[in-house]
Amino acid sequence: MDLILDGIVEAFRLLVTGDPEVADITLLSLKISGSATVISTLIGVSAGTAVALLRFPGKGFVISAINTGMGLPPVVVGLFVTIFIWRSGPLGMLGLLYTPAAMVLAQTVIAVPIITGITLSAIQRLPGKLRLQILALGATRRQMVWTLMKEARLPLLTAVMAGFGGVISEIGASMMVGGNIKGYTRVLTTATVMETGKGNFALAIALGIILLALAFTVNYILTTVQQRNRT
After folding, report:
1. Domains in the chain and their CATH numbers?
2. Which residue among 58, 122, 123, 152 is least crowded, i.e. fewest CB within 10 A of its CB?
3. What is the pLDDT of residues 205-223, one digit of tens each?
4. Cα dihedral angle (157, 158, 160, 164), rounded to 10 degrees?
5. 3-class DSSP state for residue 124?
6. Which DSSP category does 91 fall into?
7. What is the pLDDT of residue 208?
8. HEC profile for 60-83?
9. Under 8 Å between Cβ of 139 and 130
């Protein structure tokens, strides 16, 4: 109990004093996970909508693969991303290993299936005749798709929140592809693991509290937008 209280006090101190190292780590966490979420949203919403609306051979297999991908272990993602961007790997010439860009890439791979899967489910839950009604009113296929996405906007925002939650809290992939380099690739999750390993439990708890506060703040903003869009 004393450790937890010490961690809360330390978190408050770090926030009040504006510790520059913690501020940099927090901002980098938000930058990396935010970038991965934006990219994943663009890919995932588009892919999920396309799979939901199109008919093609092997659709059931694709949906099964998407649903499986929603539970991808981050450490496995980190392993394969590391292999691809390793110096002798297919993308080694890009020099991405142990950079923030590599962390964004790994987190994007984690979040895309999550957002795709929830989007797919949201679009499929819409009434089957709604598409025909929209087209009968003279809408183009692009307008029809946009209308369906607006109808499913609440679960789509849930998909974004789930994607962000999945990447802001992951540790395995970020550690493997980023290397936890101080001042460059160290984020809240990797810093928490490092401080725990060093026995600095008060600081580790403080970083954990800051991570929870960051995740809550972002999700609160998205939830507020979601609830305001209820009609």
Report:
1. 2-228 (1.10.3720.10)
2. 58
3. 888 888 998 889 988 988 8
4. 140
5. helix
6. T
7. 86
8. HHHHHHHHHHCCCCHHHHHHHHHH
9. no
Which residues contact residue 103 at a Cβ distance below 8 angstroms, ignoring those fewer than 6 apart?
32, 36, 173, 174, 177, 178, 185, 187
The residue assigned the tokens 């984020």 is: 187
* Length of the chain, in residues: 231
Name the token pair of 210: 């800051």
Q: Which amino acid is at 218?
A: V
pTM, full prediction: 0.90
> Residues 13-29: pLDDT tens digits?
777 777 788 889 989 99
The separation between the first and the last C-alpha atoms of the chain, rounded to the nearest angstrom, is 46
The residue type found at 230 is: R
Q: Which residue has the higher pLDDT, 228 or 166?
A: 166
Chain centre to alpha carbon of residue 170: 9
CA-to-CA distance for 80 and 66, rounded, in angstroms?
18
CA proximity to 44, closest of 24, 66, 61, 75: 66
Taking every pair of Cα atoms in the chain, the longest distance, rounded to a whole number of angstroms, is: 67
Distance CA 63, CA 122 (A): 13
pLDDT in tens, 105-149: 999 999 999 999 999 999 999 887 887 788 777 878 888 888 889
Look at the block and give the residue holding tokens 């991808």. 72
Handedness of CA 155, 160, 164, 166 (dihedral sign): positive
CB 111 within 8 A of CB 32: no
Between 6-10, 45-49, 88-92, 157-161, the lowest mean confidence (pLDDT) is in 6-10
